[in-house]
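Z., the sequence and structure:
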Amino acid sequence: MAENRISLAAARGNFLTWCITGLLPLQELCKPLYIGQQLTGADGVPGEWYRIYSTNEARAKFGSGSILALMAEQHFNCCDELPLYVSPVNDTASATAAVNTITITGPATDNGAIAIAILDEIYAVGVVTGATADSMAAALAAQLQKNNNLPFTVTVATNVITLTAKNKGPEANWFAPIVSPNFGDALPAGVTVAFNQTTPGTGVIDISPAVAVMMCAWDCIALGTEDEIAVNTFIQLVRQNWRCGVQGDFRDGHVFHSRTDTAGQIAAYGMDRNNPEECVIPVRNGYKYPGYIMAAAMASRVCCTACYDPTRPVQYDNGVLCLLFDERQCTTIWTAEEKRAFYDSGIVNWDVANSRGVRNTSLWIEEPLTTYKYNPLTGAPDGAWQRVESRYATAKFVRDLGWWYRTNYSSHSLVSDGTRIPQGKRAVSPRILQASILAWLRATQIGWTAEDPGQLERMVRVERTNTPNNCDPNRVNVLIDLDLVNQLARIATSIDVSPEFACIPPTAIAA
C-alpha cells in the first residue's frame, strides 16, 4: 500500500479495479470467499456476494448466531485488515432444526458453581446449598439467553434447558458444550448436568444460488457445509471456470471444507479423493468446534499467509488457527498413527501447539495438504500439488508473468523465427520471446521457482500455433515446466548427551 500512497481505509471499494489493472501487490488482490447459511429473514440475498469489514457487519447482515456470521468471526480473528467476501444461502424449507437439551438435577448439597462453555464462551451461575434443579436451570438459561451470538435459541421449562439450532439442516447439528471448562471448577455436590440431542437436524442444503458467484475469481473459498454434492460442485466450478486461459490469466482458487467423523473414516474419505484444488480439515465427532468454524479458520489463515508471501509455509507461527484453542488438551488431539493416515490420504494435519515448560493451547496447521496424491492420467504417485503453497506460488508466478507480458509486449506484431525485424518495428518472434522470458526468470525466479540457473533453459518452450489443424496466426504458446523450490517444513534436531561429557563418571552412573 505504501508504494501506492493510499491507505487501506481510503482504498476500500476499489478491489475490482485492482484486479483488472493488476497495479497493486498480490496481498491487495487476495479475495477470500465464505459460503454458508444465513438466518431466515436476514438481509442477505442468495446468489449475491457481499464485501464486509467486521464481524458485527456480518451479524447484522446475515443474523447473529448464523453459520455465516460464526464463520466470518474466524476470518476477522485471523485477518482483520483483509476484507471478506460472503455469499449467503438460505435454509431449505423442508429441513428440520436440531433440538438439544441440558438437564440439571439437584438439589445442591454444597455451595459452588455450575459452569459450561459453548464456543469458548463460559456461562456460570453460583449455587448455594439447597438450590433446586429448577432454579439452577432457570439461572443458567438466563445466562445463555444474554448471548445473541449463540447458534441456538434458548428456552427453559422446569429443570430442562432447550437449545434449538438457529439454522436448519445437518450443518447446524453441532452441540458440544464443555462442563466446568476451567481447571479447578467442579459441579457442587448433589448436582449433575446432562446433554442430549432430542432432534437431529436433517435436510439437504441448496447451494445452487451460490453457483452464480463462482463466475468471479476467489483465492480462498471456505464452505460452511460438508454435503458431498455441494463440495464436489464447487471443486468442479473452480476447475472449469478458472483454468488457465490467455494472457497468463490463471486465477487459482482453492476450496476448504471440513469432514466430521472418526479418524479412520476421514482417512478413508481422503483416499477416495485426488483434487489439487481441495483441502479437507478433519474434525472428530463431538469436538468443541464445529466443522464450518474449522474450515473458515483454515481458509483465512492460508489466504492471509498466501497473500503476503505465497511461497512461505503456513505452519509454525503462520499456521496458528486464528483464536481457536483447546485448553483441556495437555497432549495432542490426534495420535501419531492418525496423523500418518491423514498424511497418506491427503487430509490436513492440525493439532494443539504444545511447548515445553509453558503450556500453549492454540490450534495450528501442521501439514497443509491437498487431497492430490497421484497423476490422474498414469496413476503414478505425484507430489506436485501435495501442499497448498504450491498452488498459490504458481498463481503468483503466472500473475507476475502475465503482468510482465502486458508491460513489455502489448501492441507487438508476432512473426516467425528467422524473420528479419526492421529497426524500430515493434515485433517479436517465439525465439526472441523465449530469450526475453529466460532473462526475466533469471532476474526474478532464482531461489523461488528455480534452484539452478541451468534449469531455466529446460523449463521454457515458446512456439507459434501455425501448424495444420492448429492455426492461429495471432497466438503464441508459452510452455513452462515450473520447478517450485521445496518448502522448509521441518527441522530435525538430534541431541546426544554421552556419559563422556557428563560431570559424573560413567561408573558412578552405573552404581
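The two ends are 68 Å apart (CA to CA). The chain has three domains: 25-92+205-311, 99-199, 414-511.

Let me know what you think.
H.
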